[in-house]
Write a structure and sequence with these properties.
Elements (H helix, E strand, L loop, with lengths): L3 E6 L14 H18 L3 H6 L6 E8 L8 E11 L3 E10 L5 E10 L10 H4 L1 H12 L2
């Protein structure tokens, strides 16, 4: 499966008084990784919404390994791990760029819906988008 990567630097406001990234920010990093993955695939969130496809979050989980700290450059990696008729699952790994140390692994699942949250069968309703996601899964 193809893995997409982008980088961010930990900002001071993302840390707690212990100097480590507050756990809630990792979910934001997941979203950053996912957004960039779509952009790199050639079909951004904006493109999806303009075509009438929304992707609400159904679930998200994170397994914390080691803390990230202020000013550290993080590598946000993600990949499509499952693609079903009306849903997708994405896996994430966040690691330090310099150390290579894994800070967190996680996953999120999303439904494909219309703007009024009715389920959409992606292969039928948006075959171009389905092919992009399927292609990302099939890459080695």
């Amino acid at each position: 499966m193809m893995t997409f990567e982008t980088k961010v630097r930990v900002q001071y406001y993302e840390t707690d008084n212990m100097g480590i990234v507050h756990h809630s920010n990792y979910i934001r990093y997941f979203e950053t990784a996912r957004t960039e993955m779509f952009r790199m695939s050639g079909y951004s969130y904006d493109d999806m919404e303009k075509s009438g496809i929304y992707m609400p979050v159904l679930s998200v989980s994170a397994d914390f390994k080691t803390p990230a700290v202020y000013d550290e450059v993080l590598v946000l990696a993600c990949r499509v791990s499952k693609l079903k008729g009306a849903s997708i699952e994405i896996e994430y790994e966040i690691r330090g760029e310099e150390s290579g140390e894994v800070h967190v692994r996680g996953k999120s699942s999303h439904g494909f819906t219309t703007p009024d949250l009715k389920p959409v069968r992606l292969k039928k309703e948006a075959p171009q988008l389905y092919d992009i996601f399927k292609g990302a899964m099939d890459e080695k």
